[in-house]
Every structure is written in structure tokens, then in C-alpha cells.
Design a protein that fits this description.
about 240 residues; 2 domains
């Protein structure tokens, strides 16, 4: 009940206040990037309070899974997404005009805050601290994650593709987060690199993509799964998800 109340508080706070806060900060600092980060940080407060109420003895950095190794998360993500980078270099041209602020928002800021909200709070809290299993835990958070990306198109077929791709993407990021000993940096950097390569190369106007765009993304996912599985078997570490 505390979790549900905390989520509802966050949801409506974000729904009604995020854009207002973002607009106010943008007018104050004349920066979309700063406004995006600070608006996310402020609307994150109900989530942090909820986690502190549920687990009062834990430090905030531990509650958000940020106490794990960022270097490990970075290494896995960079190596795992190399097929995307190499494939996109071969098949796509660099984007002609790249706005630094838009690039920052769509890569660093979005990856960081979306992983904390969806993977750590909505999915991770349910999986780690309730009796819900993996499939039950991922459903609501992944559906909501997919839903917030539907602004990218008005075409029905594309909307279905976007929903399916982002839903499965949420499942994949969650799996990587769980199997890396709840190291959220793995999911953050995977999210970051995948968004980065999609942004700096002229792949597609939205996440539904095209043949080569999705092919190299799929190969990256397979490589990440292979790397994680290899290391867990080598170290004889049990899998979280069986």
C-alpha cells in the first residue's frame, strides 16, 4: 500500500508539475538541459520518500542502486553495443545538425532518470522486496515505459511497433540490471549508448526504426546477453532470472 501510494503521488506530481517546473527553470537558466535535469530531480522526490519509508535503514544511494560499480556498467554497455556502433557507421550517415542540449536530454538525462524511475522503483522494488516474480514485476513498469514513448508517432502501425520495441527494451534493461547484481549503471549505460547511436546517426525518425537499425540493435542485445551469461557461468554465480 505504501508503494502504491508513493507511485500515485509521484505519477500525479509528474503529470501536473513536471512541465511547469521545467518551464520555470528554463526561463531562469535559459537552458533546456538544466531544466530537464532539475525538473526530473524534483519530481523524483516522492519516489525517494517512498523508498525511505519502506526501507528506512538504507542510504538513498543504495535505495537507488547507485552504489554499485559504474565502471562495470560502462564496460558491459560499451562492449555490448559495439555492433550498433559499427553497423551504423557502415550503413548510416552522421546526423547533419546535432543540438547539444537535445542530445544531452535524449541520452544522458533520459537514460539516467528513466532507469531510476522504471527499473529501480517501479520494477526493482516489486521484484526485490515483495513475493512477486520477474514476469509479474516487469509488467506494469514496462507497459508504462512503453506508453510514455508513444508520442513519437500518430501512425497506428508505428505506434504498435514503438510500443512492442520499448516494452521489450524495458524487459531487457531490467534483466541486465538484475543479473548484474542490481547494478543500475549497467542499464543506464546500455540505455545511454543505444540512444546515443540512434541520435548521432540518421537511423530513423522514431524508435520503430528500420531493417538495419533494428538488426544491429538486436545483435547488440544478443551480445550483452552472451557476455553476462558467460561471466555468470564462469564465476558459477546463480542467475536471478531462471
Amino acid at each position: 500500500m505504501i508503494f502504491i501510494l508513493g507511485f500515485i503521488t509521484y505519477y500525479f506530481f509528474d503529470l501536473f508539475c513536471f512541465k511547469t517546473i521545467q518551464h520555470f527553470i528554463k526561463e531562469l537558466f535559459h537552458s533546456k538541459a538544466i531544466a530537464h535535469v532539475l525538473a526530473y530531480s524534483i519530481t523524483l522526490i516522492p519516489i525517494i520518500i517512498t523508498l525511505k519509508v519502506l526501507l528506512p535503514k538504507n542510504k538513498t544511494i543504495n535505495l537507488l542502486s547507485l552504489n554499485q560499480s559504474a565502471a562495470k556498467g560502462f564496460t558491459l554497455a560499451f562492449m555490448g553495443t559495439l555492433p550498433m556502433l559499427i553497423g551504423y557507421i557502415i550503413h548510416f550517415k552522421l546526423t547533419n545538425t546535432i543540438s547539444f542540449e537535445s542530445l544531452f536530454i535524449n541520452t544522458i538525462s533520459s537514460a539516467f532518470f528513466e532507469e531510476l524511475i522504471f527499473r529501480v522503483f517501479l520494477i526493482g522494488t516489486l521484484y526485490r522486496f515483495t513475493r512477486l516474480g520477474f514476469l509479474s514485476s516487469i509488467m506494469f513498469g514496462s507497459i508504462l515505459f512503453a506508453q510514455v514513448h508513444l508520442y513519437q508517432s500518430q501512425n497506428t502501425i508505428e505506434l504498435l511497433e514503438i510500443f512492442a520495441i520499448t516494452f521489450l527494451g524495458s524487459v531487457f534493461f531490467t534483466w541486465a540490471y538484475f543479473e548484474q547484481d542490481f547494478n543500475i549503471w549497467a542499464a543506464i549505460f546500455l540505455h545511454f549508448f543505444m540512444n546515443l547511436y540512434w541520435e548521432i546517426f540518421s537511423v530513423s525518425e522514431n524508435v520503430s526504426g528500420n531493417l538495419y537499425g533494428n538488426l544491429y540493435k538486436f545483435l547488440s542485445i544478443i551480445l550483452v546477453i552472451g557476455i553476462v551469461t558467460y561471466h555468470k557461468i564462469k564465476k558459477k554465480t546463480p542467475f536471478q532470472i531462471t
